[in-house]
Design goal:
There is one protein chain. The two termini are 38 Å apart. Among the domains are: 172 residues, FAD/NAD(P)-binding domain (3-Layer(bba) Sandwich); 118 residues, no CATH class. 36% of the residues lie in helices and 24% in strands. With 491 residues, it is α/β, with parallel strands linked by helices.
Length: 491
């Protein structure tokens, strides 16, 4: 039976933030764009008055001011720009920023608040690592020196520690002769196991990358950003995503939901990409296709063209699946001093999987948009190695996670309303599911993409694998780069 065919200049396959930014940028420049979303994938979970948002890293839970401003300017989102306030309010806000905690690291015998202000953070080191205090201070002083070098390398108009695209500029300046070539495992070799784990947990909390060999320069950028950057209050990635979708629609972009994709056909002669939709009697044709889904999920669509991705699939692979578990509970169960965002390890001698490492996000106290009055929603992300899980194993894994949670919340069973794993059961098999920690097969060159934005003449890729070491910033960066590249093709 002959299929109906819809024509577009650009099709974006997937609803991640990177693809959405590329789509909005292109639509804002009067390009004919279709955003194609998987109907069975739902990025949020609502239950009994609670609203849960799964996450892949902590950068998705806190939004940098510079990042917020860049996206607002890029897409002309004037309604996201806040009004100026008087000087007294600015001064009061500055004091609150000084006392703000990025998140909390919980070790078996320590609980450390990551204050944005160095003097307050030093008090945490002094309390938890008194025997190593002088060496720890030297370690952070060295990072301060590297941070100043990274600022000098930052190109005008970019929001990362490196220039966005002009590689010749990078080659002239990177690696700078004073920039260290050490990796973090080398740098921390003389420190205690507890301090090493304290640093390692911070690094993997901010990004989509699992490694014990982070370049020291990258670690400096990640660990210093809490102090160097201001954070936007009351704005999160979910709200920003919703606003970008509205902007995309207002500028003429189309959004369709599909049951799935049967096949992607790449026509070299006519330079057209054809998407055959599952369960529908139509196809989508476009001049350019942007793939916005985890790389290892895309092979099933490309058939013989899968070799286009094979090189990059070998270079970067998912190490862990992050499994979201949602809990509704009374706020009385929250221990004094526990922060809304924390990473916890139960046993330093054991691997991260099996519920040993948890990433937790508590809903904001008093916010009835995400939890009923007097209640708190808890989103818990745990790790399972790729290839070592199956649907039936999730319930067994839940038992390990709950043992860890009872260690953090001693009276949890008295105040727990529900534990919900149903979202994970339903969403884990979707090709849009984005929650993974990756590892690279080569030494990480963090001044460039791991997976390039452009795969072939008319095939582009945006996602967490482009810049897995930059978290949310990397996703936005990849979407911006792809949007700019395709706009140049129309010039």
């Amino acid at each position: 039976m002959k299929r109906q065919s819809d024509e577009y200049e650009v099709t974006v396959l997937g609803s991640g933030l990177g693809g959405l930014i590329a789509a909005a940028l292109l639509s804002n420049h009067n390009r004919n764009v279709l955003l194609l979303r998987e109907s069975s994938y739902h990025p949020f979970h609502v239950k009994d008055g609670y609203r849960f948002s799964p996450f892949s890293n902590f950068s998705e839970r806190r939004l940098k001011l510079t990042l917020f401003q860049k996206v607002s300017q890029l897409l002309n989102l004037s309604s996201m720009t806040r009004d100026r306030v008087d000087a007294r309010k600015v001064e009061a806000k500055s004091e609150r920023e000084r006392q703000k905690v990025a998140f909390q690291v919980v070790l078996p015998k320590a609980r450390i608040d990551l204050f944005s202000h160095r003097s307050m953070l030093q008090m945490e080191w002094k309390r938890e690592f008194p025997k190593e205090l002088s060496r720890i201070e030297d370690f952070y002083h060295e990072m301060d020196r590297i941070q100043s070098l990274l600022k000098k390398m930052k190109s005008e108009g970019s929001w990362s520690a490196f220039t966005l695209r002009p590689l010749p500029w990078i080659k002239r300046w990177f690696p700078f002769q004073s920039l260290p070539k050490e990796t973090m495992d080398e740098k921390l070799s003389s420190f205690s196991r507890e301090f090493k784990e304290f640093v390692q947990l911070q690094l993997i909390s901010w990004v989509n990358l699992y490694s014990d060999r982070f370049p020291f320069s990258l670690a400096t950028y990640l660990l210093s950003s809490e102090e160097a950057e201001k954070w936007v209050p009351d704005i999160d990635a979910e709200k920003m995503t919703k606003r970008i979708v509205e902007k995309f629609s207002q500028s003429g972009g189309d959004i369709e939901e599909t049951e799935g994709i049967e096949k992607v056909e790449i026509g070299w002669w006519k330079r057209r990409v054809t998407l055959i939709l599952k369960g529908e009697k139509k196809t989508i044709r476009s001049k350019f296709l942007i793939l916005n889904s985890p790389l290892h999920h895309l092979s099933q669509f490309l058939g013989k063209r899968e070799k286009l991705l094979s090189k990059w699939k070998e270079k970067i692979k998912p190490r862990y699946v992050l499994l979201p578990i949602f809990l509704g509970m009374d706020e009385k169960v929250i221990p004094v001093g526990m922060r809304d965002l924390l990473v916890s390890i139960l046993d330093l001698a054991k691997p991260y999987e099996g519920g040993n490492v948890l990433f937790l996000s508590l809903s904001q106290k008093g916010n009835e948009a995400v939890a009923p009055e007097g209640k708190r929603g808890l989103t818990v992300e745990s790790l399972i190695p790729i290839g070592k899980w199956y649907q039936g194993s999730l319930d067994e894994h839940l038992e390990d996670v709950m043992r860890h949670l009872h260690h953090l919340f001693p009276f949890l069973e008295k105040y727990l309303e529900f534990t919900d794993l149903s979202w994970t059961h339903r969403q884990l098999s979707c090709w849009s599911y984005p929650h993974f920690l990756y590892e690279t097969r080569d030494d990480l060159r963090w001044e460039k993409e791991v997976v390039p934005n452009r795969i072939s003449k008319n095939l582009y890729f945006v996602g967490k694998e482009n810049f897995p070491h930059l978290g949310l910033e990397g996703e936005i960066l990849s979407g911006y780069l792809v949007g700019r590249q395709i706009l140049k093709e129309f010039d």
